């Protein structure tokens, strides 16, 4: 009898220690009262709203809120994570679990809290959110906690994600996703099954179209304003001003040659520094040596962005094709002097390597001008590539002419001239790789699909 009591006491003691260590993340009472729903990757664990709770009267006038179903919420979280990892160029290698507790919504704009807790060498996170929430706020909360989980991996202390990064990445994820991120609770019954109808109508040609409209109506924010949001910055129109500016900043950083690598490095540097600016400059040191250089770059990006009418730009597929026609022009080529000319494609690399100065100069200047005009209408994802092509041709012609040429024939051979051509051809090869990576996939027209809750 004494042994039995001792065993029971030990088991109770172990259970008490476990519950104390788990804290808010593994609320034992909540798991007994409500159900638990685990996502496909098992990173997200969602707890039901405690039964017997009544909805708040204010919900009757809140048509902009989505009622969160715990099962569908796990699917939404996985979709948001998939899109975020795509933007960062990462595979799914999560380490920390994310526990989401739902409670009855009581007031409008109710805050969503994130609580990190460390267990051994790993971090887990608890999200406490209302069961009715705006789509954008839900996506923002999930993106923020995912960025936090990525940054905290292997770290002894939990870091803080800069507001501009979480807000900007959230908007980028929302406007680049090819599928509905936030799934609503089924609202119709057909043949005994709960059905939700999803209509994909929010896919746009440019993810920055809304940001462009916002920043034409309101001045874009400077780096300092994005870094330290002022009081009331997330109220009304000021909130859209901030989120649009942050989205443009994140989008432009990702468009840098190694932007994704730098952003991943930034997340890894965050826990090592109390000041996120130091972590940023270390991660992006190949682009910005100082804070001032970053601010100057951002000022230039704003001028270029607000000076383009995104409503008049071509779709990505047409933009890519127009660029292809410029960098791979059709020309008449003769294999022998007596042969008839053949109309065929030729690359800019071949023009620099094989053509004489007169023909080379004439065609490259023409292509440089065409690239300048193309920039006015090309889709936003190709703007920086077009700029790099034009800058490469301009630098080549300028440096080549300064080294001395024979205007009536081939350039005088010299080590400097040969090295310049070799470096330019290498740069064009790199740009060609980027261009092929940006080649758009065939578009799938929007469709109306019927999905049951069990399929979701």
Explain how this protein is built:
The protein is α+β, with helices and mostly antiparallel strands and 456 residues long. Helix 4 (135-152) crosses helix 5 (163-176) and helix 5 packs across helix 8. The chain has three domains: 14-53 and 63-186, no CATH class; 204-311, no CATH class; 313-437, no CATH class. Residues 1-33, 197-204, 407-411 and 444-456 have low confidence and may be disordered. The strands form four sheets. The protein has a five-stranded mixed β-sheet, covered by helices on one side. The protein is elongated and about 85 Å long. The protein has helices spanning 2-22, 28-33, 70-88, 135-152, 163-176, 209-217, 223-227, 237-254, 259-269, 276-283, 291-306, 316-327, 348-354, 357-374, 383-402, 415-437, and strands spanning 36-38, 44-47, 66-67, 98-103, 113-119, 122-130, 132-133, 188-190, 193-199, 330-333, 342-345, 448-452. It is built from 16 helices and twelve strands.
Biggest sheet: strand arrangement: 1-2-4-6-5
How are helices and strands ordered from N to C? HHEEEHEEEEHHEEHHHHHHHEEHHHHE
Choose one word for the global shape.
Answer: elongated
- Domain unit count: 3
The percentage helix is: 40-55%
Number of helices, where a helix is a run of at least 4 consecutive DSSP H or I residues: 16
Radius of gyration: 28 Å
Mean pLDDT: 81
Approximate strand percentage: 5-15%
The helix-and-strand class reads alpha+beta
Unreliable segments of 5+ consecutive residues: 1-33, 197-204, 407-411, 444-456
Count the beta strands: 12
């Amino acid at each position: 009898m004494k042994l039995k009591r001792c065993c029971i006491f030990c088991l109770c003691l172990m259970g008490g220690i476990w519950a104390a260590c788990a804290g808010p993340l593994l609320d034992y009472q909540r798991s007994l009262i409500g159900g638990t729903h685990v996502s496909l990757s098992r990173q997200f664990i969602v707890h039901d709203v405690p039964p017997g709770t009544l909805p708040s009267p204010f919900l009757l006038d809140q048509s902009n809120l989505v009622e969160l179903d715990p099962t569908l919420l796990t699917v939404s979280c996985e979709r948001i994570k998939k899109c975020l990892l795509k933007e960062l160029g990462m595979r799914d290698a999560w380490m920390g679990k994310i526990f989401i507790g739902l409670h009855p919504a009581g007031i409008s704009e109710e805050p969503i809290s994130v609580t990190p807790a460390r267990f051994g060498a790993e971090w887990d996170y608890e999200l406490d959110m209302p069961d009715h929430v705006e789509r954008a706020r839900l996506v923002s909360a999930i993106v923020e906690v995912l960025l936090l989980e990525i940054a905290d991996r292997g770290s002894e202390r939990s870091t803080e994600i800069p507001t501009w990064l979480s807000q900007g990445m959230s908007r980028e994820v929302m406007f680049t996703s090819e599928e509905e991120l936030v799934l609503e609770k089924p609202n119709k019954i057909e043949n005994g099954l709960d059905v939700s109808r999803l209509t994909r109508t929010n896919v746009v040609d440019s993810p920055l179209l809304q940001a462009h409209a916002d920043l034409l109506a309101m001045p874009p924010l400077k780096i300092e304003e994005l870094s330290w949001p002022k009081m009331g910055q997330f109220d009304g129109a000021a909130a859209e001003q901030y989120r649009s500016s942050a989205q443009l900043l994140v989008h432009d950083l990702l468009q840098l040659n190694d932007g994704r690598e730098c952003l991943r490095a930034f997340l890894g540097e965050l826990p090592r520094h109390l000041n996120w600016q130091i972590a940023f400059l270390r991660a992006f040191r190949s682009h910005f040596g100082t804070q001032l250089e970053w601010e100057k770059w951002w000022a230039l990006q704003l001028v270029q962005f607000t000076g383009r009418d995104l409503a008049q730009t071509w779709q990505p597929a047409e933009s890519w094709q127009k660029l292809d026609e410029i960098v791979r022009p059709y020309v008449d080529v003769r294999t022998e002097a007596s042969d008839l000319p053949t109309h065929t494609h030729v690359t800019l690399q071949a023009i620099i390597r094989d053509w004489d100065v007169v023909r080379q100069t004439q065609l490259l200047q023409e292509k440089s001008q065409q690239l300048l005009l193309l920039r006015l209408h090309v889709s936003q994802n190709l703007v920086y590539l077009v700029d790099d092509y034009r800058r490469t041709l301009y630098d080549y012609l300028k440096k080549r002419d300064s080294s001395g040429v024979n205007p009536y024939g081939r350039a005088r051979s010299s080590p400097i001239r040969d090295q310049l051509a070799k470096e330019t051809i290498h740069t064009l090869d790199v740009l060609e790789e980027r261009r092929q990576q940006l080649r758009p996939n065939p578009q799938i027209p929007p469709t109306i699909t019927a999905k049951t809750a069990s399929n979701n």
